[in-house]
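ok trying this again, last paste got cut off
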Amino acid sequence: MKMIFGKNLAIYRKKANLTKQDLANRLKVHWNTVHRWEKGELFPRPELLEEIAKILNVEISDLLKAPEPEPFPGFDNIMCQPARERYYSVWQLAAQHAGIQVALGAMGDPLFRDRIPKLETEEEVIEAYKEALSYWKKVTKRLDEELRKRGIRVESEEEMITVPEEDLKSLDKGSDK
């Protein structure tokens, strides 16, 4: 019960954009107490449990029930981010799940900031993840085909291959096939 409560507390606290210190201040407890609740080492007194639920704008039962499984690994972490940052994180995470390490620097560029959609709801995040994962899987498949055609073999996942930008553009165009 302590572990379930602790995980839920951390999730709802982050969704409320509160630090451990913020929550501790509002509850008039030490921040380490909040930390120990989240680690499952302690459990709050009943009157504090009610106050926690009120501060986080959830029901007590939400804090005590086993959380639903994530739609994809890393989902809860993405949902704790501001809506404006989620799109970048979804694409980065989907690339990793497709087996690609990419630098998506342009998305953080202020020039592109206004063009990046805000992912406000869980459904929007899940849909964006599916789209990104599909895209990266196509790019991965195309990259594998291209490397095989050129006679380049990758022996392990630890090996890094640098693909010139012009080649990436041609791979990107071919990923819709």
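PB: full thing came through this time. The radius of gyration is 21 Å.
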